[in-house]
Amino acid sequence: MSSPSQASIEFDAICIGFGPAGIALSCVFEDAREQAQPLARHAIRFFESAALTQWHPELLLAGTDINHHVFRDLVTPRNPRSRFSFAMYLKSQGRMFDFGLLGRPASRAEWSDYVGWVSRQVDAQVQFDTQVADIEPQVRAGRLDHLRVVTASGTAATTRHLVLSTGSAPRIPALYHDLLGPRVFHTSQFLTRLGAFGANLPRRWMVVGSGQSASESVLELLERRDDILIHSVHRSLGFRLTQLGQFPNQVFSPSHVDYFHGLAHDARRQFLDWSKSTNYAGIDPDESLKLFSLIYEDRLAGRDRLRMQPYRVIHRVAQEGSAYRVVTTDKFTGQEDAFEVDAIVLATGYQQYPAVPLLASLQPWLREDSDGGLLIDRDYQVAVQENCDARLFVNGLSERSHGISDSQSFSLMALRAERIALALDQAISRQARPTAGDAIAAPVNANTATA
Ligand SMILES: Cc1cc2nc3c(=O)[nH]c(=O)nc-3n(C[C@H](O)[C@H](O)[C@H](O)COP(=O)(O)OP(=O)(O)OC[C@H]3O[C@@H](n4cnc5c(N)ncnc54)[C@H](O)[C@@H]3O)c2cc1C
């Protein structure tokens, strides 16, 4: 715990993470600045660990597309007149009419380019290449008075208002914790790890998972080596289709967030389980057909590149020399089976921790629910103890309190950013402005300050 006397620059608010959620928040302030609204007066600094904005670069694969409507971009649901919309992006690139003729969703490459295009216009207050390592409490007269945001390089800034837009964490089953490395990795490292093999891509693989990242990993590996052998391991009977129906997809609408947030703790958990099973861990019909056809055609040709392993529970993975021996059990018959692979891809998705690890040092000042998780109000503000004068908001880490649509999705990003910005404005306005405010509002990004 540090004392208030330790000098560091103070900001009205500090936002950690400048992925899509952080960018959407910055767009709110930039729109306000252009319209000379009071919201724009605050001195806000963003810290982003990456050197530049990229949207899930490790799975930026050819042939992949987005799974939300392009109207659900970084701004349109909040302000269709904002100049940071996907439509404005298309217009600026001269692709408005051709995009319309495509009659399909935007590719992931195009969406990533759109996110980068917006980012470059609203990143004047972003300090890139800056990983936040800790948030320390500064206590004065028994009260948590300020937050000290400490970066990995040891520099610090202080604030009373914090927004966490740090995204979800890769889910890595405990079985693999000691094996992680160049040959056992999560899809969040997919292209980097494949690239590191160069011309020596291993032949025998296991891909764990039944969702989109699993099918994409399988298809990419098949492209990269002709004599490859992939064990595709599933708890059910292979890849499931994602839920495309209009009715269940209404969970991604704003009214459902109100509904979900109004539920009791246990009901929220039940609702989340139900909505996850209807919307997560599924693949598109065309991908499903592609994978099934591939296995079928391989059989005709006497090839065996993709071996499906259905109803499997993996209960042991042991390194034996340069290979991994995988032992599985059939969920229903109990029959044990084993095979050997040279490398493993964990397409096991992402998770949100009930208690955010980055807030660990603040734990005594945070109020908890019965699972030890954060209590988050409808405006995404984290509930704190009475002796805490700092205010914290989560921007994209509220799956347990706001439901599936409000966490790992673009659907409500723009509306959520607006809600957080307004609540932040109120919180800051209730407190005195920091003395260094005017000086620190100067852009940190010389490249883009005038964009
Ligand atoms: C491959 C893939 C495809 C997807 N496709 C879709 C889709 O088509 N449609 C959809 O709605 N959703 C999709 N999603 C869900 C995805 O979560 C959202 O699209 C979106 O990326 C969420 O944005 P975010 O800013 O909350 O999180 P992230 O995109 O994860 O961004 C978080 C940012 O915070 C930074 N950060 C984290 N910790 C720190 C720290 N300590 N200090 C400083 N910076 C930090 C990270 O570097 C990152 O830039 C996809 C997810 C994946 C993995």
Summed up:
This protein is α/β, with parallel strands linked by helices and 451 residues long.
- Placed side by side, the strands forming the largest sheet appear as 4-3-2-8-19
What about the largest sheet?
A: 5 strands, parallel
| Beta-strand fraction estimate | 15-25%
Q: Note poorly predicted spans.
A: 433-443, 446-451
- Gross geometry: globular
Mean pLDDT: 92
User: Total helix count?
Assistant: 12
What structural class results from the helix and strand content?
alpha/beta
Number of strands: 19
The CATH topology of the largest domain is FAD/NAD(P)-binding domain
What is bound: which ligands?
flavin-adenine dinucleotide
Quaternary structure of the protein: single chain
Q: How does CATH name the architecture of the largest domain?
A: 3-Layer(bba) Sandwich
Euclidean distance between termini CA atoms: 39 Å
Description:
The protein has 451 residues and is of the alpha/beta class. The chain folds into 2 domains: 9-168 and 352-440, FAD/NAD(P)-binding domain (3-Layer(bba) Sandwich); 171-242 and 282-350, FAD/NAD(P)-binding domain. It is built from 12 helices and 19 strands. It has helices spanning 20-34, 86-93, 96-102, 108-122, 190-197, 212-224, 254-261, 265-279, 285-300, 399-402, 413-429, 437-440; strands spanning 9-11, 13-16, 44-47, 126-127, 132-140, 143-151, 156-159, 161-164, 169-170, 184-186, 204-208, 229-233, 306-309, 312-320, 323-330, 336-341, 343-346, 350-351, 391-394. The strands form 5 sheets. The protein has a 5-stranded parallel β-sheet, covered by helices on one side. A 5-stranded parallel β-sheet has the order 10-17-11-12-13, with helices on one face. The longest helix has 17 residues, at 413-429. Residues 433-443 and 446-451 have low confidence and may be disordered. Bound molecules: flavin-adenine dinucleotide.
